[in-house]
Specification:
alpha/beta, globular, 234 residues, two-stranded antiparallel ribbon, nine-stranded mixed beta sheet
Amino acid sequence: MLPTVAIIDPAVKKPALTAFNDLVSISPLPLTYHLPFVHGLTSLLQLDPQQIKGAVLLGSNLSVHDHSFQRDMLVSWLRKFIEEHKRPVLGICYGHQLFAHMYGCKIGLCNPDGNRKFGLRKVKLVADKYLRMKAREQEIVVSHTETVVEMSDEFEVFASSDEIPYDGLRHRQHLIWTLQSHPEATQTFVYNNAMQFELDPEIKDSCYGILRHFLVFAAAAQERVLKKKLARPQ
């Protein structure tokens, strides 16, 4: 089996196939696609974890508070993947919230009335030497009703905005990065989420640059970087 990056799509109604196809075009490694809440975890469990160099957990209309057999199985698989196999993961929207929830953060409504935040949001990302990213501020598509409302000590802020202080997190020990926004968003995603605007190609390209940084890092499998990160004083 060739080394790969697993794209995990927790969708239950509208799979993110357009985004997956776009990610294939920017990834230095082959990608595999998984729909755990539709087809279960069989496709993930059949892969050799040593050959999966990283994973991206996408968004969903589900809440992290919605418990199910598939959700609990996915959390178990992710913990082992992160903590035992020491692999990097990127969480987007639902993925952001699930990783945060797994490691002690509190997830709640982003608006007291329960209304969804959607559209474009200006997000500030900090520099990251592991992903080789410079600090940047850019517009990213958003669509969510919940978010991280309290951050645990296990994380530090990776991205913030005027509306959402914990718009992205990174774990202090494990190789976990998260974003509440949708850097993988395509025009299909915009329409599927009832947003009526044309996604600027420059915004999309800049957002995919974030994803490219993570995919390149996963492909490099830099064990020396991992050892330095795990040895970093807390």
